[in-house]
Amino acid sequence: KSFRDKGCKSLCVFMKRSGRNCNDNPPKGREHCYLPYFAHDAVHPSMIGHQIAKDLIVNAIAQVGHDLCSGEFPTDHVLPPTTWLGSPNQLDSMTNFVMVKDTMGVYSTQDPLVSTNHSKGFKLYGDQFAERKGWISTNEQGGDYVEFDVDLVDGCYDIVISILKSYEGMGVMTIDLLDKRTKSLINSVTEDGVWSPKISIPADVVLTNSKERKTCSGKCIVVVKTHPIV
Q1: pLDDT digits (tens, 9 = 90+) for 164-182
Q2: Is this structure's pTM higher than 0.70?
Q3: 42, 94 Cβ separation under 8 angstroms
Q4: What is the DSSP code string of the chain?
């Protein structure tokens, strides 16, 4: 009846399939158990983790082939900054979520990523067969916004939002993290959805800064605002 750290996230699947309640004796600090996003542990990627690793390997091979066919000497290609490829400490923190809100349907137990407020330009695209359903704005004039609530017990949390990055067809966005009680700005980051690798994969954006004490108390709002395409 006891859970080891992070073990519950995999055990939940087996418990549910056997008719047990996944919330029996959950680990301290969790209300629910979730499958990890990128990896089950330091050496076992999840389904999404395997897909990203495959894309990265195929991209590296394709880049070398392209260079050779173009008569160019193969160059070193920088891997996209997928956090799970970092240190074991990064991997541990990024696969140990307290709460996950998801649109891609990769979790056994999940809360849907429902917007609490958004402009007319933002829509949840995709259907039950789509692999990468998500909130998308196609307005090239920018100025659209979508908001998501974070509602957890009082504490000190790091907030991470996953955005789709690709080599074309993406734009620049500002992502603000607000305190829900005071409406004050905790942190703000600007992200470009375009990068050079010829692949399209989710990339994590950490909205908090623990070193500067810019963390979420558990009651926060995430606001994504689009920039004009220039």
Answers
A1: 888 888 999 999 999 999 9
A2: no
A3: no
A4: ----TTHHHHHHHHHHHTT--TTSSPPTT-SS----SSBSSSS-B-HHHHHHHHHHHHHHHHHHHHHHHTT------PPP--GGGS-HHHHHHHT--S--EESS---SS-EE---SEE-TTEEEE--TT-SS-EEEE--TT---EEEEEEE-SSS-B--EEEEEEBSSS--EEEEEEEETTT--EEEEEEEESB-SSS--EEEEEE--BGGGTB-B-SEEEEEEEEPPP-
